[in-house]
Amino acid sequence: MNRLFREYVSLFLTAGLVVGLDQWTKWLVRVNLPFQGTWLPDELGWLSPYARIVHWYNSGAAFGMFQEAGSVFTVLAFLVIGAILYYYPRVESGDWPLRLAMGLQLGGALGNLVDRLMLGKVTDFISIGTFPVFNIADASISVGVVVLLFSVWLKEQGEKTPAGGDKEVTGLPADK
Hints:
Layout: H1 2-32, E1 38-39, E2 51-58, H2 70-87, H3 96-119, E3 122-128, H4 136-160
Antiparallel strand pairs: 1-2, 2-3
């Protein structure tokens, strides 16, 4: 039991922070801004065409894609959460970028799942330019994917360079 707790503690801390921030910000928007309302402090009015807080709902996937497929995404969220929980302890403890990516993705999936189960739809509120409105959970999933891809790229770069640091130009071993 103790080993299992240690395996998952960083995952649950990362995911918990994301879920907490996500749910708190969504609550602030739902309580303080009418549906389809917009908010931006007066002193930042010049930002209005570029960034603002809006109160919006999304029944589809991240960034407003696949509207009216909410039940599919609820099931998909459970599958993603299960996969992360299953694979996380199989990741090397020193592979912190992959572990971070999984924590961000788990937190994002859980944050939006809470909305789907409680409200039947996801609260979105971050509006930047003409980009679809999103929330902290969506951003966390996206950042998690970027960290995951960067981590994989770094691993591939490390595997291309031999342990001694000498690169093989001809494809022949360095000692010939």
